[in-house]
């Protein structure tokens, strides 16, 4: 059974949990208290010297970076290649959406929201950049039912983890009508969606909302 070092509130960790549910692999979940510094302890650094979560240990494989873990789980344990297609033309779209999530959408979310954890007021310009990224995702969904095709892929697992967190902190999504419809489809199509994603999103959403309130700043002015 693979070990997953994780924190439920973390969107990247939740994307891995969704992929594991989808392929039906049971994970030995090991919570890491990042706020308490557990990721910097010698025993964890022996596993992952970059001290990041999620981290997967499966036999002699030690793997971090959530999107790499998702692709590994889908390839190693998937009953078919639907979550991460073998066909290069189909796979490149999945890879493009994974990179969009990592380098644009989730990155812009953290740029906007995470400074409040350090007691810093968010930059309104970063909110506009985040909304721009949401607009791009909304446009991607013009072509397909899901993020990279007409079936759920690991791109959806990663993107829904990010978008559900964005929604959980109080950013209104109603204007992104395709995203709203896609989220409803994901909730129905993804096994174990609530357990793997909703509870953690609510956890970080509540935490960040409180930080915004302490700074007397509206999340979505």
TrEMBL record:
<keyword id="KW-0808">Transferase</keyword>
<dbReference type="Pfam" id="PF00043">
    <property type="entry name" value="GST_C"/>
</dbReference>
<dbReference type="GO" id="GO:0006749">
    <property type="term" value="P:glutathione metabolic process"/>
</dbReference>
<feature type="domain" description="GST N-terminal">
    <location>
        <begin position="1"/>
        <end position="81"/>
    </location>
</feature>
<comment type="subunit">
    <text>Homodimer.</text>
</comment>
<dbReference type="InterPro" id="IPR040079">
    <property type="entry name" value="Glutathione_S-Trfase"/>
</dbReference>
<dbReference type="InterPro" id="IPR036249">
    <property type="entry name" value="Thioredoxin-like_sf"/>
</dbReference>
<feature type="domain" description="GST C-terminal">
    <location>
        <begin position="87"/>
        <end position="212"/>
    </location>
</feature>
<dbReference type="InterPro" id="IPR036282">
    <property type="entry name" value="Glutathione-S-Trfase_C_sf"/>
</dbReference>
<comment type="similarity">
    <text>Belongs to the GST superfamily.</text>
</comment>
<dbReference type="InterPro" id="IPR010987">
    <property type="entry name" value="Glutathione-S-Trfase_C-like"/>
</dbReference>
<dbReference type="Pfam" id="PF02798">
    <property type="entry name" value="GST_N"/>
</dbReference>
<dbReference type="InterPro" id="IPR004046">
    <property type="entry name" value="GST_C"/>
</dbReference>
<dbReference type="GO" id="GO:0004364">
    <property type="term" value="F:glutathione transferase activity"/>
</dbReference>
<protein>
    <submittedName>
        <fullName>Glutathione S-transferase delta 1</fullName>
    </submittedName>
</protein>
<dbReference type="InterPro" id="IPR004045">
    <property type="entry name" value="Glutathione_S-Trfase_N"/>
</dbReference>
